[in-house]
Design a protein that fits this description.
- The chain is about 20% helix and about 25% strand.
- The chain is α/β, with parallel strands linked by helices.
- Strands 1, 2, 3, 4, 5, 6 and 16 form a seven-stranded mixed β-sheet that branches.
- The longest helix is centred in the C-terminal third of the chain and has 23 residues.
- It binds flavin-adenine dinucleotide.
- Flavin-adenine dinucleotide (FAD) binds next to helix 1 and helix 5.
Length: about 300
């Protein structure tokens, strides 16, 4: 099969790019590592009301609308298809030993993943005390002690959500100032159930079969706080490891692009959160997907005009 465009990633940015390619008559193949389309929308349990045109009770509902609408467009896609490597100069991707080359362009729409702490206990206790979502798991912490790690909006918003049901919330942040919005900081400071520990790091998550304590470090002193649950919200990092050495990335690993969503390699575009460290949104990702497809189409039309 010959594809004009290969799109890596099936979140809002990739799905938008695929729909726009189809709209413009470009033959597109979308490759998604997971078993479902949707990207971060699949782990968004809060309402998404800020994407103009639709108000959804959570990310999955918005994803369902995207997928239903995408069904009206003629593009190919493969699920559980993780791209293992990219040859940007050849506009080729390799997955499960198979190499596929795009005739016109590659679109990188690989998004971001949650940053990990990289400490002992973090992997072992996933779903055994380490929570996946504050909103979704709020009932499971009723009457329990919870440690939340992080200092941004996600950490503080979740501290407020979990304080409604938890007995006690310990908010651990490595810096002395929070990055989160003022309204969250104010509410957290006023909540008697939330204990704030700044300039403190989590060294270890401890327990036998499930989380029983966190080992914390403050100014060189190590101490243990008994908790039954932990929620880690220390930011995100881009899924761009496979592009290292192929495209210009910034210091954080985000793909550098221009206003056409074009990268440093000819014919390679990047859209959505993987190329948008400062303003990651559904609307941004969807818009960038449209931009990349339209630019690819325009360049193709220019090349073929006499
Ligand atoms: C809890 C939460 C709440 C949010 N709330 C809002 C909100 O209210 N409003 C808003 O606008 N935004 C919100 N966002 C952000 C929004 O979800 C993202 O901006 C948006 O999903 C970005 O879309 P994307 O397509 O760039 O990337 P993603 O959604 O991250 O999708 C990237 C996809 O690429 C796939 N992929 C990665 N690497 C590979 C590979 N090598 N091969 C194949 N596939 C690969 C991934 O599996 C993933 O499916 C929220 C995010 C979270 C986590």
């Amino acid at each position: 099969m010959n594809y004009d465009v290969i799109i890596i990633g099936g979140g809002p940015g990739g799905v938008s790019a695929a729909c726009w390619c189809a709209e413009l008559g470009l033959r597109a193949l979308l490759l998604e590592a997971r078993a479902e389309l949707g990207g971060q929308l699949l782990w968004t349990h809060n309402p998404v009301k800020n994407h103009l045109g639709v108000e959804a009770e959570n990310g999955r509902r918005l994803r369902d609308i995207f997928v239903r609408q995408a069904g009206n467009y003629d593009f190919s896609f493969r699920l559980s298809a993780e791209v293992a490597s990219v040859d940007a100069n050849k506009k080729a991707v390799v997955l499960a030993g198979e190499s596929i080359t795009a005739r016109r362009a590659l679109i990188i729409a690989t998004g971001v993943r949650r940053r990990e702490l990289g400490i002992a206990g973090e992997k072992e206790f996933q779903r055994r005390g380490i929570l996946a979502s504050g909103k979704r798991d709020a009932e499971s912490v009723r009457g329990k002690s919870v440690c939340i790690v992080g200092g941004g909006d996600a950490a503080l918003e979740n501290a407020l959500i979990l304080a409604e049901s938890a007995r006690r919330v310990t908010l651990v942040h490595r810096r002395d100032e929070f990055r989160a919005r003022g309204e969250f900081v104010e509410k957290v400071r006023q909540n008697p159930k939330i204990e704030i520990m700044t300039e403190t790091t989590v060294e270890k998550i401890a327990g036998r079969d499930k989380v029983e304590a966190v080992e914390l470090k403050n100014k060189g002193e190590i101490f243990t706080v008994p908790v039954e649950s932990v929620l880690i919200r220390v930011g995100v990092e881009p899924n761009t490891g496979l592009l290292r050495g192929q495209l210009n990335l910034d210091a954080g690993g985000y793909v550098e692009i221009n206003s056409d969503c074009a990268t440093s390699a000819a014919g390679v575009f990047a859209v959505g959160d993987a190329a948008n460290p400062l303003a990651p949104t559904v609307s941004g990702a969807v818009g960038m997907g449209a931009t990349a497809a339209k630019v690819i189409f325009s360049q193709m039309s220019l090349q073929s005009s006499p």
